[in-house]
Task: structure prediction
Amino acid sequence: MAESEGRVTNFFDDPLMRGLACAAIAPSLRSVLVFDADRATLQFAAEAIAKMLEAITSQKVEKVTLGAIASEDDLWGNLGLHANSDGFPFEWQSGLLVNRERDLRLVVIPDLTRLSLAATRACVMLMSADVGHLERYGQQQSWQPNLCWLVGCDSKQVGMVSTHLLDRLSLRLRSGIAPTLETDAAKVTRLLDWLSSDQNSGNLEHSVELPDGLIAQIQAAMGVRAKLTGKTSDRILEYVTVSDRYSPRRDLALARLAIALARLDGMTEVAIEQVDRAAEVMGLQPLRSRPSSSSTEGDRTEPKSTPIPDFQSNSDFDRSLDNSSRDIGTNEVKEPVYQSDTINAGDSDSFDLDGIGNSTKPYPEDTAPIEREAGSLRLPMQRFRTANAARGVAIGVKRAADARDIAWVSTILEAAKFQRIRSGSTNGSNGFAILPTDLRSYRRAPVTEQMLMMVLDYTCLRDRNWQESLLPYLTWAYVERACICLIQVGAADAKHELRAVRIEAQNVLVPRINAGLESGRGRATPLAHGLDLALQTLRHALQHGRSRVRQAVLVVITDGRGNVPLEASRVGDIRAFLPVKQKGIEDALQVAAQIGELDGVKAYLLNPQPKIYADLPLHLAEKLGAGVLVIPEMELVEVES
Result:
């Protein structure tokens, strides 16, 4: 008995396991986001919470995994061939997220940043929803979602995820070391043993064995009801920062977690200690100072100290806490897409600025750089309808619907599972039987249809308003969701001053593009090498592979005075090419002529109007076949002292 209690204590010493136990007993907490969890830790957490849910609900938990390949048909359902050929040949096959029979499903998302757009939209709709509706292919269905969500995400890349989706993930946890974590080597050994057995019908999942004392404690907590008091409600508000990114779901998550911890302890009333423990599980720290009641007496009413009445369901509790929040004046603030995270100096008397960094630890999206589009939940617009969609890089496999794009390795592995059964029906033949049901085809990521290529000569940008001239092209790339390539010529932070630097990104919001645009001016101007990098990149994007770009926009900002020959940039030494004379300019014009011969490229040259050799930009634009736009001089404003 003592050993069992010790194992239970070890499990609850880990904040991750405490949070999972609370999510198991509280349906309102069953959307869990685990930051910085590796594959093994997330798999252990999924198996552990599945065991807890099975013990509570007395029903088998079905595990579903969503990733970059999840499509609308996978999530909601589709018409498929009927197993029996008699009668109507098609039947409706339900999707992964449609559970009309009220069966409990555990939805695992290993990497939230790579989740497909269809799955992201589905998560926003179903998380914390009371009813799900489906109208698809003539089907009209409604059901009560019975889903538990376990999501992994890198805290450094949280800026790529829609804030609407992040706001619906109620419980925020940090990755920890599970006490009985099975190593990868042990899992591989168990997998090989399972494959080598004659009757390999065992279940590989749910291999984690939880202590009996833990299961008994969770089951006992289901019969306990706990309620908040006025003091604990005030304590919850001490952990919440009311700012422009405030959401009432954060108050609710902390309150629900405190109630769940009190139920695990067998207490009918939530104490301040449970609130502090709940904040510790989520990684919250209290604010060091609170607004005084005298300073806000005229703005809001005094909070009621009467305890919140007992509740029968999570919806009752939500309404109770919502009403309590309205009484003390915590109004919901809508989050704009591009709102500054800077705290006004005038707010420093309301709360201590030192506590803000710690208090937002579970919510890194408040300070993370935005790397997503404003309409990140909208389907991208397809401009080139003749191009095949989803012809990008292979990101998975699926059952083949036709004979195109067959994944032969996956097909052979699928057929290998049934060779022992099929060997008895092939008249003693030793051949390898492949049936049409074994065929697998590739799932491919959607391709980027358009590209913005920028070649910036940093040595000619002084006293020129080039940012305003470049802004329309960046706006176009943002609207069209075009990929970006920035060629830096003569940048101050280049690793080698005789060579240009190439920076590529999926969209214009990636921080390294903004950092590249703000680079300073260097000494050399390897213009020929910069144009050569642009030529190589354009050729590869427009002519290579199935995921080639359909249209590229090339924007060149230079005065045409390249002083580094192309061969000198390639070898990294200019001493053998001295004196340079016109060699750098001639090489740049030669490479520009090759770019002008490419199909699918719209070129523009922004002329900085140099006072010396003013005709060089025009000659370069002629070779590129580009239109010429003039960059105006920066207006000088006299400042009176």
